[in-house]
Design a protein that fits this description.
Layout lengths: L5 E5 L3 H12 L3 E5 L6 H9 L3 E3 L13 E4 L8 H8 L4 E2 L1 H6 L5 E6 L4 H14 L4 E5 L5 H7 L4 E5 L2 H5 L8 E4 L14 H8 L11 E5 L3 H9 L5 E6 L8 E5 L2 E5 L7 E4 L8 H16 L4 H10 L8 E6 L2 E5 L6 H10 L4 E5 L12 H7 E7 L4 H7 L5 E5 L2 H11 L5 E4 L12 H14 L1
Parallel strand pairs: 1-2, 1-4, 2-3, 4-5, 6-8, 6-9, 7-8, 9-10, 10-11, 11-12, 16-20, 17-18, 17-20, 18-19
Antiparallel strand pairs: 12-13, 13-14, 15-16
Helix pairs in contact: 1-6, 5-10, 5-11, 10-11, 15-16
Length: 450
């Protein structure tokens, strides 16, 4: 048990309130502050448990008496209160770091710029099917702290964002998975890609020979980082471009081979058997299979799970086929790399619905895919200048809309039987929607109204 007995928590969403409840249960004196009104569900929880909270940020000197400071992932490092506490030479930790102190289960931590939610859910699906008592937490599901407080389990599968990893200093998952690193959220990292990369690699800081590290061998950023940074963890690379000698996974023609130990018979599987199709999902499936094998799941269970898994809502989600036109909801694609994966997986002519709040996007990597696969673009956003500039010379038909209903109607006019209408925005949703879920639901409702 840490000596510290008082904690200040900034942010009163699922992460902050989960941390507050766990801290109180462990004997801490807890104070929570939020920049503005707290959602009714969370304020009631705090009230019910007698936890002091503010719906404003107090003066910096208020935090001086507290031994520890937990920052919710949505709070930027540049926040004045965070800066002030850091000047006191005291670490600002994340809810993940705090909850890990009390977690007795094995942990599987999964991060990456893209694919982490799908892979996290897939690992959870496999372990659950194997008969383990397994929890799902972190950036998907309930907070890690709430999960540790309310449950006992064999494994906890954690989706970890860079924001959550930023506040981790001792935490290291038993099995760490790094899927890929592409530019995202750079506004939180002083527009420095190296800072963002280092944040992702915090998932294996302090790793020992008792830990395992699964990573994408094909990712140039990961490969470059590992050339100058070593890890004591056992490593398991996966690749779709070349064979992996020893432990790891790779694709050869249409067969994936997954090797847990070099002297053991590998698991092999035809990619046509996978429930999740597309190049990016081959990566996700290999990573999940390696994690499951390290958790001692039988090959037969892994194989069956990879075949019957159903993907999450808003991620390459089939919505309907209307007049021979397939409608696909990929609203979770909030960056260019996610949209690249979506377009790459399409095997039909595409009417692409994209746009939203730009995060400093560079659309160059989409040029070849758009030129070869996209027959029309429907912009769904307030400012579509960059999209029109990037693709205007490649696609003859580009229109602008500001509602999901108008976007779907415009796409339907361009499409014909055998085409696909793909919502894969490559942008955040906040210019027109509360979040990507609301955008995806609006898209699905508009499709069904056809």
């Amino acid at each position: 048990m840490p000596k510290a007995k008082s904690i200040f928590i900034l942010g009163a969403g699922e992460s902050g309130v989960g941390a507050a409840l766990l801290a109180q249960a462990k004997g801490y004196r807890v104070t929570v502050a939020n920049d503005g009104p707290i959602a009714n569900t969370f304020s009631k929880e705090l009230q019910h448990n007698g936890i002091t909270y503010f719906e404003f940020v107090p003066e910096p000197k208020t935090v001086l008496p507290f031994n520890e400071f937990i920052k919710s992932p949505g709070v930027a490092d540049a926040h004045p209160l965070v800066n002030f506490y850091n000047t006191q030479k005291k670490p600002v930790i994340s809810e993940i770091e705090f909850a890990a102190r009390y977690c007795k289960a094995k942990t599987i931590g999964i991060t990456g710029s893209n694919g982490k939610t799908t892979t996290t859910l897939l690992v959870h699906h496999i372990l659950k099917k194997a008969g383990y008592k397994v929890a799902l937490a972190g950036n998907v599901g309930p907070s890690f702290a709430r999960t540790v407080l309310n449950s006992t389990f064999d494994y906890c599968v954690l989706e970890l964002s860079s924001f959550q990893l930023d506040g981790c200093f001792q935490f290291k998952p038993d099995i760490a998975v790094l899927l890929n690193i592409t530019p995202d959220h750079l506004d939180r990292y002083q527009n420095n890609f190296n800072y963002y990369t280092a944040s992702k690699f915090k998932i294996i800081q302090h790793a020992t020979r008792r830990n395992h590290f699964i990573y994408c061998h094909d990712d140039a950023t990961i490969a470059a980082y590992l050339k100058t940074h070593t890890t004591q963890a056992h490593v398991y690379p996966f690749s779709i471009t070349q064979p992996i000698i020893g432990s790891g996974a790779y694709l050869n023609a249409s067969t994936i081979t997954i090797t847990y130990k070099p002297n053991q018979k590998p698991l092999t599987m035809n990619i046509e058997q996978l429930a999740l199709q597309g190049k990016h999902n081959i990566y996700n499936s290999m990573a999940a299979a390696l994690a499951a094998k390290l958790a001692h799941v039988r090959k037969s269970v892994i194989r069956e799970s990879l075949q019957d898994f159903q993907n999450i809502e808003h991620r390459l989600e089939f919505v309907a086929t209307i007049h021979g036109i397939e409608y696909i909801n990929d609203s979770k694609a909030t960056n260019v790399n996610s949209a690249w994966y979506a377009l790459e997986s399409m095997n039909k002519p595409v009417i692409w619905i994209c746009g939203g709040q730009d995060k400093g996007n560079n659309y160059d990597e989409l040029t070849a895919l758009v030129a070869s696969k996209v027959k029309a673009i429907v912009c769904l956003g307030k400012n579509n200048t960059k999209i029109i500039s990037a693709f205007g010379s490649l696609v003859g038909n580009i229109v602008e809309t500001q509602t999901a209903q108008d976007a779907v109607c415009a796409a339907a006019k361009f499409a014909k039987s055998g085409d696909a209408v793909l919502l894969s925005p490559a942008c955040a949703s906040f210019d027109l929607f509360k979040n990507y879920e609301e955008r995806g639901l609006a898209f699905k409702a508009a499709v069904r109204s056809l």
